[in-house]
Amino acid sequence: MSAKSYQCKMVIIGDSTVGKTTLLNRYVKDTIDLTLQTTIGVSFFHKNVYLQGNTYKLEIYDTAGQERFNSLVPMYYQRSHFCFIVFDLQNLNSFQRVEFWENELKKNTNSDGAVIQRVVVGNKCDKDVSVNEQEVINWCKGRGVHYYRVSALTGEGVNEMFNEILMKYSWQPAEDTSKVGQTIVGDKKKGCC
Ligand SMILES: Nc1nc2c(ncn2[C@@H]2O[C@H](COP(=O)(O)OP(=O)(O)OP(=O)(O)O)[C@@H](O)[C@H]2O)c(=O)[nH]1
Ligand SMILES: [Mg+2]
């Protein structure tokens, strides 16, 4: 079977300081920047991943968690395959805010019937966890949302999370926009595994 290439759009949301940018730096560059500043507006990450003989071209939008940027974020939900809602396992308030972010996502999508896979991410699992994770698991189960615990600082669980969501969950690839050489984009079946 010939190797194929798929395009996948992702967006990452959640309160300020939960570690969204650090998580993407860890995943995309396998490094973290301890002098990192709060994100202003939105920044963009790109990564090619090779899994089971196929290439996945990821476009990932890193959004600002600060309230003053809230109105900017919804435009990045459009045509996304996955939305990561990140909270800080050390900060109960950031988990309580996950519901706010999920509602924002719901309010601003579905006009075209597209399904976004929602992934709740508990970051900073390298520190003493103060959020009750059973509550998180129950919250996610009740809503059909996937849950992962990771540490952007140590890298624990990060690659595993991205690999698993790409391979395990159903997502509809983007339209074919590149058609370069032998690359076939956009014919991945729903329900990939
Ligand atoms: N201990 C620990 N600290 C982390 C981890 N991830 C991020 N941090 C720290 O948390 C702080 C905030 O991280 P950012 O990645 O800037 O947070 P953000 O969610 O992008 O924040 P905004 O851009 O303001 O929305 C930084 O001091 C990071 O070093 C982690 O996994 N463990
Ligand atoms: Mg940031």
TrEMBL record:
Q: So which domain of life are we looking at?
A: Eukaryota
Pfam families, sorted: Ras
Keyword terms of this UniProt record: GTP-binding, Nucleotide-binding
Which Gene Ontology biological process is one annotated for this entry? phagosome-lysosome fusion
Q: Which CDD domains match?
A: Rab
MF-aspect GO terms: GTP binding; GTPase activity
Under InterPro entries, the record lists: P-loop_NTPase, Small_GTP-bd, Small_GTPase
A GO CC term?
A: late endosome
Task: Give the UniProt family note.
Answer: Belongs to the small GTPase superfamily. Rab family.
Query: Entry's PANTHER family?
Result: RAB FAMILY, RAS-RELATED PROTEIN RAB-7A
What is this protein called in UniProt? Answer: Rab1a
